[in-house]
Amino acid sequence: MAGRSAGPPGEPRRVAYLYLLPAFAVYAAFLLYPIGRAVQLSLYDWDGLSLGRWVGLDNYVAIVADEGLRAAFGHALVLIVFYSGGPLVIGLGLAAILNHAKVRGLGFFRTVVFLPQVVAMVVVAVAWRRVYAPDGTLNTLLGALGLDSLTRGWLGDYTFALPAVGVVGTWFETGLVTVLLLAGMSRIPGELYEAARLDGAGAVREFFAVTLPSVRGEIAVALTLTVIAALRTFDLVYITTKGGPGDSTSVPSYEVYHRAFGLSQVGSAAAIGVTLTVVIFVISFGINRFADRRVS
Amino acid sequence: MNPPLRAIAALAAGVLALAACAPGSSAPPAGTGTSAQPSASAVRTDAAQLGDVTLTVWDQEVRGGQAAQMKQLNDAFQAKYPNIKLNRVSRSFDDLNTTLRLALSGNEPPDVVEANNGRSSMGAFVKAGQLRPLDAYAEAYGWKERYPQSVLRYSSYSPDGKVFGEGNLYGLPQVGEVVGIFYNKAKLGKLGLEPPATWADFGAALDKAKAAGEVPMQLGNLDKWPAIHVFGTVQSRSVPADQISTLAFGRKGGSWNSPENVKAAEELVGWVDKGYFNKGFNGQGYDPAWQAFGKGEGVFLIAGTWLLADLQKALGDDLGFMLPPGATADAPPVATGGTGLPFAITAKSPHPDAAAAYIDFITNADAMKVLTSTGNLPVADTAQQSVPAGPQKDVFTAFGTVTSKDGLVPYLDYATPTFADTLGAALQDLLAKKQTPQEFLATLEKDYKTFAESNG
């Protein structure tokens, strides 16, 4: 009965949806439903315990109006520079060298570069907190170089706290980006380089003419991953600065946690979470659109 | 609308429809807990006669001496009342805080829970009708005679959860804590100083320590909250205790913009100017700071009695502890302080009598002795405990003195649900000179006033 009568041969049959159902059920239960619930919560003024009060879009209006929250989103954008920009530049350079020089023990270097990714962020944060402490490694090093005037409590300094957190992000993401780009570069056929060299291109020209365009896809993947990581930053800030000094390192994810569990403003927390999700979605979408516009 | 978009829209609508009941609708109407309050004669205090009962207890006594006392007391309770079975669930402070909220809104919450005193925990639970008022039990067991009023108010709320510090009693703590001044006896001796008897002497001692090239005072303020205790100590030298209580309990009628508060903020900034704190204190963690003090860096440390065990281990008998001195040597003591987390009974517990008997058992006079012997600071009968001379004796004397004279003032961050954050960030700003004392107080005033007005 179900046969192929529904359409021309080769067309998908309706029964296909049945096969999709199990996966969809799991997806809906663990992803779509929670998202829907979060959206719904964001429309309420709710303390997590007593009956919620419908407030419509007030929570979203408050996000835009709240100077502190705008600052938090601003800090997240600064972190993108450190999480994505830094690793991309360093990663491109590092990968180009590793790929080009055909270093002996490439596997070893690849492992070393990738190592930060393997360590849990909480551990990374605790370690860097010690590095940045007033009597920590960084200040000891500066002192040894005779740069005592530069020493400070890095995470407690209003100018340097956010960059200090950002540098941890750079350190963390560089390995991932490098390994991604290295994989991309190893697939570039040698003939392309040969041709470029015959045309009289130097190493720099070669990099911009051959290597860079060839790893466009990998760059997009790297950017997507790192930008999302930057916007979602929570554990790093939670462990190192708790958003301080003052509010100079507050980030949206930390605000979500803080409002939901610290201040019992579950509705507001959900609204920030939803906003953050939308921002992440838009930015990743933009990056991928950009990467898909293949140059010939 | 093209087909895929339409599908997504339909999906979104469906998901929303699934989720479309107001959050929190399963919570009981406010007041169920309060109307059920029995009179003292109606409660049963003979635990052995309560039949076979299982009590589920959620506590956060997981560390060192805390865990030891809890185990010892629970074992004794089980031995004495075999008819009551304890089902103990123990988790760290942070874990308890984040899970308790969900557990209490369920249909079968634990019977006895340790709930943090503040508005966002105990206050919110009272407001939602999830905790049982304990006044009848307090009367039956004589808790109000044994516990000082300045201690009991930390677990008292009005039945609607709005007024903190008075009203019904919702919990009973085991241990006390007070913020005072730890000092390094050996260093004081080297500087030719005695523990300061007045606040002016304290200033002079800091001066002398600085001149001698010591770190006068350790502070690690990276975690935002530690300076709250330092500021509270300075503030309670110049601001009258009743004003601090009004501000710290978030009640109407106080103001941060007072000359006394300005004086306190200016004095604290003065300490920064004079270099009394270690370098880079805003970037130093709380733990590394007191650990440095334990290693002999720093003459003084303003901190709470909870550091006693660790510091004593590090410094031994070189460690001393004192209440912050007043303007004169015989001024009545005032210090920031409070209690450990109070034990409360949930409104839905089917065995409130057994739960109250358990709470009484872990807080009675014998329990206080167990607390002492396991290195904790008992909140009641503190002066009656016998401890060897040394830092522990200092701490017991300090707490006994300040509670017997009702000199405890509440933690400033109790004031409003957001105040810990507001004050912590503002203090970092103040200490880093990003805000003047006036701006600092205006920030606090705004948070306090906004809350006090809306709270009614």
UniProtKB/TrEMBL annotation, chain A:
<feature type="transmembrane region" description="Helical">
    <location>
        <begin position="160"/>
        <end position="183"/>
    </location>
</feature>
<dbReference type="Pfam" id="PF00528">
    <property type="entry name" value="BPD_transp_1"/>
</dbReference>
<feature type="transmembrane region" description="Helical">
    <location>
        <begin position="219"/>
        <end position="240"/>
    </location>
</feature>
<feature type="transmembrane region" description="Helical">
    <location>
        <begin position="16"/>
        <end position="36"/>
    </location>
</feature>
<keyword id="KW-0472">Membrane</keyword>
<dbReference type="InterPro" id="IPR000515">
    <property type="entry name" value="MetI-like"/>
</dbReference>
<dbReference type="InterPro" id="IPR050809">
    <property type="entry name" value="UgpAE/MalFG_permease"/>
</dbReference>
<dbReference type="GO" id="GO:0005886">
    <property type="term" value="C:plasma membrane"/>
</dbReference>
<feature type="transmembrane region" description="Helical">
    <location>
        <begin position="76"/>
        <end position="96"/>
    </location>
</feature>
<keyword id="KW-1003">Cell membrane</keyword>
<dbReference type="InterPro" id="IPR035906">
    <property type="entry name" value="MetI-like_sf"/>
</dbReference>
<feature type="transmembrane region" description="Helical">
    <location>
        <begin position="108"/>
        <end position="128"/>
    </location>
</feature>
<dbReference type="GO" id="GO:0055085">
    <property type="term" value="P:transmembrane transport"/>
</dbReference>
<protein>
    <submittedName>
        <fullName>ABC transporter permease subunit</fullName>
    </submittedName>
</protein>
<keyword id="KW-0813">Transport</keyword>
<comment type="similarity">
    <text>Belongs to the binding-protein-dependent transport system permease family.</text>
</comment>
<feature type="transmembrane region" description="Helical">
    <location>
        <begin position="260"/>
        <end position="287"/>
    </location>
</feature>
<keyword id="KW-0812">Transmembrane</keyword>
<keyword id="KW-1133">Transmembrane helix</keyword>
TrEMBL record, chain B:
<dbReference type="Pfam" id="PF01547">
    <property type="entry name" value="SBP_bac_1"/>
</dbReference>
<dbReference type="InterPro" id="IPR006059">
    <property type="entry name" value="SBP"/>
</dbReference>
<keyword id="KW-0732">Signal</keyword>
<dbReference type="InterPro" id="IPR050490">
    <property type="entry name" value="Bact_solute-bd_prot1"/>
</dbReference>
<feature type="signal peptide">
    <location>
        <begin position="1"/>
        <end position="22"/>
    </location>
</feature>
<protein>
    <submittedName>
        <fullName>Extracellular solute-binding protein</fullName>
    </submittedName>
</protein>
